[in-house]
Inverse folding.
């Protein structure tokens, strides 16, 4: 799986302990040092945002309506500085104002 497939939400899960709904994306490719995957990550994040903000999540999963949302990036290779800077901007400008959290972790961690 890669973030290149922006038309698909990779995984949706619900943690009953925190009552949080997580929309997960997976990237198995190396990020590289030149930001080669940034356009893919941007498209994936835009698709996830639209899925939540346009009400598609609520329509497909009405049991999750009103629950806290977070996006989670699972990666095989550690994202670089460019990706970290991009995610920080997205979080500040789009996710946090919409009340959407962010997490990321290495696959299998």
């Amino acid at each position: 799986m890669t973030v290149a497939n922006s038309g698909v939400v990779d995984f949706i899960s619900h943690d009953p302990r925190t009552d949080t709904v997580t929309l997960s994306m997976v990237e198995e490719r190396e990020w590289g040092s030149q930001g080669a995957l940034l356009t893919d990550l941007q498209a994936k994040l835009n698709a996830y945002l639209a899925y939540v903000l346009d009400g598609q999540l609520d329509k497909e999963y009405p049991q999750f309506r009103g629950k806290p949302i977070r996006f989670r990036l699972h990666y095989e290779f550690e994202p670089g500085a460019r990706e970290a800077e991009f995610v920080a901007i997205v979080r500040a400008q789009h996710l946090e104002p919409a009340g959407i959290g962010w997490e990321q972790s290495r696959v299998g961690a």
Observations:
- Residues 38-53 form the longest helix (16 residues).
- The first strand starts at residue 11 and ends at 15.
